[in-house]
Amino acid sequence: MKQFVGIGYRKDFGEDFLHSEILQPSFIELAPENWMNIGGYWKKVLRRLSEKYPITAHGLSLSIGSPDELDWNFLEQVKNFLKDYDVTVYSEHLSYSKCDNAHLYDLLPIPFRFDAVKHIVERIKQVQDFLQRKITMEIVSYYTPVAAEMSEAEFVNEIINGSGCNLLLDVNNIYVNAFNHNYDAHKFIDQLPLDKVAYIHMAGHEKVADDLIIDTHGQPIIDPVYKLFEYTINKLETPVPVLLERDFNIPEFEELAFEMNKLENICKKSWSFSYAS
Amino acid sequence: MHLSNYTKTQQNNLASFCKTNILKPIDGLTENRIHHYRRLIYGVIDDSLRSAYPLTENLLDENEWKFLVDEFVAKHKSQSPQIWQMPYEFYQFIESNEFGAKTKYPHLMDLLMFEWKEIELFMMEDQNDNNVKLSHDIFNHSQIVLNKEYEILKLSFPVHKKSPNSISMEDKSTYFALMFRANDKVQFFDLSPFFVWIIYEIENNNYSLKQLIKKAEGANKNINHKIISENILKFIYTSHSKGFILGFENEKGENDRKI
User: Fold this and answer.
1) CA atoms lying within 13 Å on the CB side of residue A215
2) How many contacts (CB atoms, under 8 Å) link A and B?
3) Do A105 and B28 touch (CB under 8 A)?
4) pLDDT on residue B129
């Protein structure tokens, strides 16, 4: 069993995942939207998963940056899901996925603007009050800025510090954004409120043009992202859960295990040393 | 609400572009990259619909399929935060708008409904009471216990019996399809109106088999009683073996799931 590294469970893994000795994650992550209000086969699988592994939840439809109202009925269902499955971490995205009363089922970039900061800070506080827990917000990858009047790092800092929520650091997203927007990923990480990092995501991506990477979660993690990961976790004061995400081109479990082992070894090297010193 | 009208407009314009492919002004945009957002969103919705409606996708040619999905993405405001429920909104959207495909394929709405119901039943929350005591005593005081995870579809075309590509106007009639979830799978079979009535009677009157046969004989006096009882028995045994009838609950509370 891994100590630090979990994996995002995908239905493509099927029941084999439950019987596999290959992966041995320390926890699994689920998107509540795919598992709420269901019964039958997948409910049984969910029950068995929850009996075997601790669960973290990574939401898709909160749409914290949307101009639309928060969906309290949806949040009530999320709250029940978190309670029913004893979910330790509930994370979501600093983005919006619903606008003009329409769900879009993907993540759009929020304008880095002062009014957006106020809007999001207030909404995160409302959500945290409602769920009676801190939520953990992820810096998303983005391909174009929209009407920005502040830097991305300022935007993130203002929201995390203003709302009191935790930070999900998707190291691949930082790499992707640094490449796409031509900034230094290490310097960007240095500017973040690292004491608020409660969760880390790692994934692969796809380079679609000389100057553009798309965050696909469909490829293995590349070495520069592993290096950025090591750089990042060496800066954290305490260990946090680390997740491997793979949404497309799902490979054999052995390949996922290879990536998880690599991440686990980096964690052990960094965090065992910091414990000892 | 702290968001200014300016910021809201920027956000709305981006979302609107993703739906319609029509770009209204957005400040600071990297224009040669914005199409990726539309591509990604369109791909998520299209994949989800193709996965939900494989028979419909196969029936329509690629241009017909793309036209319906284009219209849906552009004009429909999806309400479900759970993407697995979104395909039902596609059904509703097609149903409530005029499309040439509905004329060309008169069985299109039946097919979409049939495919959606398979998903809905497969995913629906568990309905059956696991504490019901089931017995093999089927003839006497035992009430027939139906699997509650079912639906009877009334169809105008036999989309549950024939390949969608081979269905024509000549097939137009009234059909009933029983769909139910048992053993973690959705199963279906064709029903005659008589058995639709039988299921209704079981559902609403908590009959034992004996009472059910008596009721059916009383309601169908012109039909040989032997034929009625034989057909009902065959239906009951088949339904039980397939999991549509869970068993027979009796007053003694016996707990025996075999017959």
Assistant:
1) 25
2) 147
3) no
4) 83
Determine whether the interchain pair B181/A40 forms a contact, defined as Cβ–Cβ distance below 8 Å: yes
**pTM summary value:** 0.94
Q: Tell if the CB–CB gap between A146 and B29 is shorter than 8 Å.
A: yes
Residue B69 sits in a domain of what CATH number?
Answer: 1.10.150
Distance CA B13, CA B17 (A): 6
Contact A145, A112 (CB under 8 A): yes
Same domain, B149 and B88: no
Structural domain span for residue B192:
143-249
Cβ-Cβ contacts under 8 Å for A210 (sequence gap 6 or more): none
**pLDDT tens-digit profile of A16-44?**
999 999 999 999 999 999 999 999 999 99
What are the residue boundaries of the structural domains of chain A, listed by start? 5-276
**Do residues B11 and B78 both lie within one domain?**
yes
Chain A neighbors of B150, CB-CB under 8 A: none
Q: What is the count of structural domains for chain B?
A: 2
For residues B29-51, b (16+ Cβ closer than 10 Å) or e, as one string? bbeebbebbbebbbeebbebbee
**Domain CATH code at residue B203:** 3.90.930
- Residue A274 is predicted with a pLDDT of 54
Let me know whether B28 and B90 are in one domain.
Answer: yes
123-152 in B: which are within 8 Å (CB) of A? 123-127, 149
Interchain pair B81, A103: CB under 8 A: yes
CATH superfamily of A5-276: Divalent-metal-dependent TIM barrel enzymes (3.20.20.150)
Q: Is the minimum CB–CB distance between B25 and chain A shorter than 8 Å?
A: no
Burial class from Cβ neighbours inside 10 Å (0-12, 13-18, 19+) for residue B189 reads middle
Q: What are phi and psi of A42, to 5 degrees?
A: -70, -30
How does residue A277 score in pLDDT terms, banded at 50, 70 and 90? very low
Report pLDDT digits (tens) over A220-268.
Answer: 999 999 999 999 999 999 999 999 999 999 999 999 999 999 999 999 9
The pair phi, psi for residue A76, each rounded to 5°, is -60, -40
The nearest CA of chain A is from the CA of B189 a distance in Å of: 20
